[in-house]
Amino acid sequence: MQAQQPSVQLHESLDRKLIASIYKQAGRIHLRPIFSDESARAIHLSLATEIPWQLHLNDGKKPINLVGSSFDELPETDRARFMQGVYANAAKGFQYIFNSFPISDVYQRGEHLSLYVMRLYEFLNSPQFLDFAREVTGEPSIAFADAQATRYRPGHFLTHHDDLIEDKKRVAAYVLSFTPHWVADWGGILQFIAPDGHIAEGYTPTFNALNLFRVPQSHAVSYVAPFAQAGRLSITGWLRQAGSPI
Fold this sequence. Notes:
single chain; alpha+beta
């Protein structure tokens, strides 16, 4: 018999007025803790043990998804050749590669509904969280949140972009981080890029944190070093207006 899952709850220490003030001025904010301790532990356990990861990357504007284990099982020389091609593309334009699990899409298909990350997805679309999001962003038009789980391993990255796709009606982007014991030297930093190309600010992966930022805003996830000793675990997505496709 499956143990009862804890309900997802925001942390009681959150100061909504202060959060809203910082977000209004800066257009982004790092919050920790974001969920109750019990909720955060359950989300991390789900990400660490339950998720059927796929390898997610792009070829130009075309997204590509590969079964995660199929890539890992390739001979080392084939994996290296594949990654060399990915890095060559990154040198010329927008490129990403990381493990993902498309929570919104899978939920809408009625699949994997027992996973605890689905309880989080339901919470992100509950009145409790959406009211919180509208209050702290000052954006009453927020109608729903989409979501994907991500895991960045050594060699993974996401080059700079601004998240602006008009028909998606994205108001703000979020990264819910559940990475314990991360070291900044390992990379995987959420970097905000200034107009002059300098890094204006960076958020190191951490545990039970919310990174929230206005769309559009130039940002990237830095290359995860070969010597990183863990996966960068998070749930990411956008807070969006009504009338856009999921």
